[in-house]
């Protein structure tokens, strides 16, 4: 039976990611002096960062060795030396990236505008290879392996920029490298694994992202759809309509690969979940003056010098220095499911945030067979701060745990069957995860 397919999840998500910076820059005008940042503005931004991180940041567990106060002092010294905006932006990006969280970052529209178009390449590092998983550049098709940038080994090039990339995992950090045009000259050369060297000019008009293959024919009673994002209600509503239209189907395949999130699709989950489950456990920073006072107890000279109280003071600091409010996962009962048959969901490393809100209950209740790759591993309500000059910041204000209190941030949700497309399969246009999903419907 034939089925109508929506635009590929992966293609849409990568398009939004890679072109987001340049599209944003095209709508913003800056004055002739925008390349310089006054000392007043630099210090105001710095002070806001210090206060906001202390108040809202919920992911200190991910960076137990980080001395943020020391890093911040070094940052202030650095930004005080020059009014160059690019230098200020990169220093700020580097400071925020030390927090190691995918929902915590700094952006400047001016820097995006100055940096120009994106590279047009989507990358994932697999088995030590920098693999092009999608491309707008005909000379560097999907399946290409990047070995160097302007003659510099790719690992060396990455190491130069790594500290300015905000992410929850090393894999995600590497995957973002080619999404940040600030790191690349307008024209640069790529060395490829097949021995070729190609020259890319970011000003050249990009082509279209390649769409992963979708089946032209489906088994009788099997239907497929993809959900590109949950940022706009339309996509959840379309998915609900799809489920309603095929309530008696033998099997449904829902593809959320590349879905970067948006808003939790609660209504879609209601249409699919048939068993109760324990929802996310949540943690958030508690900014309470008395607790901070207890946390600073060990810094008092009289306490440090008193052996009798030293152990007690250490305990006070570790417990109160960054206190967290914890809410255990609540029992979530199913609503009125529309579809109760076989469900297969395709996931990958770019399924993030609200996409993981969708996947988690399916995994917890064993409602669906998950096929593909481990999800991104980052969610939580970010606190957005607009500095009013093109600069903005987000701070991850909620740390989420799985219902059994096991770690999620920086870990993700694993599939039941892990299938990652190889370089050769990408070159041939094959999709092993989708093939496995079709086989699982039989």
UniProtKB/TrEMBL annotation:
The keyword Nuclease does not apply. One of its GO terms (biological process) is proteolysis. GO terms for cellular component: outer membrane-bounded periplasmic space. The keyword RNA-binding does not apply. GO terms for molecular function: endopeptidase activity; serine-type peptidase activity. Keywords: Signal. Coiled coil: none annotated. InterPro entries: ClpP/crotonase-like_dom_sf, Tail-specific_protease. Residues 193-420 form the Tail specific protease domain. Residues 1-23 form the signal peptide. This is Tail specific protease domain-containing protein. It comes from Dyella soli.
